[in-house]
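Worked problem 6 (solution included).
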Amino acid sequence: MGYIFNFGPKDLAIDLGTANTVVYLRERGVVIQEPSVVALEYGNGPPKVRAVGDDAKLMLGKTPANLRTVRPLRNGVIADLEVAEQMIKHFMTKALGSRSKFGKAEVVICVPSGSTSVERRAIRDAASNAGASEVRLLEEPMAAALGAGLPVADPIGSMIVDIGGGTTDIAVISLAGIVYSKAVRVAGNEMDEAIIQYVKKQYNLLIGERTAEAIKIEIGSAFPLEERMTMEIKGRHLIEGVPKTITITDEEIREALAETVNVIVDAVRVALERTPPELSADIVDRGIVLTGGGSMLKNLDKRLREETGLPLAMAEDPLSSVVLGAGKMLSDFNLLRKISID
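Solution. The predicted structure is:
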């Protein structure tokens, strides 16, 4: 497609994630980092958007009959196009502020490496309908590598593992191209669901996704911790039908997360097996870079180091690496043209 980009101060890079949406405004940096959640109000006629982002997440599990909270993205791709358009429009307007009055913005949006052409078209259409004049798509692992400061344009093998909310993207990058990539639809949200199911099975206690996420952040781990940790959690007892408080340990949560973590570890192992030998030598020297919110699970780097025998490094800003990489493209059109996808 013959896009002509004249990037200016109202142009945006968007990391449209299953769990969070991060928006980068040229010349300003990251201006929005909010949950990918929309609250819809139902009444006469079509549903109306009541809240988006942080405000909508506060409503999760607490809405009356006429309100419903929706995550318009599932596994990194759009599941509800109309709601996704509303969410993108809200974030674009919020990011641009008064700039939104002066013409449409040109946008770079990140997509999972395993997304199909249909899924990519849905993302492009949602951004266009939300008010973008031109849309470029960039694969998430490439954007994450750029944001983490890896030399993607050099003849050096770099390996990135980007663990988001809906997908884990693993890629080996060299000479501004992805040599190998694999997206597994197991990431942070699957970890939350695993905790919900474990607590339900072991304690007959029903907890919500916000509680599960808090447990994961507080005491979740992929490898034994130096000190034992516990956490008090509240939920509704399924048999007694009343609210109840229990204390849960880090060991139990590690057990709950074992299957999900194993899928990610196995995917990394497969990526290493399929990497060309010359690039493998670079990865042995340079190691693997972890990024994305899911990579912040305690001791995940230790677990991967133990399993692969390779050095591991965490990106400086794991939550924003993808959008920071995409943001760099707003001022480097030549590289964007090489690495963007149609």
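Discussion: The first strand starts at residue 12 and ends at 16.
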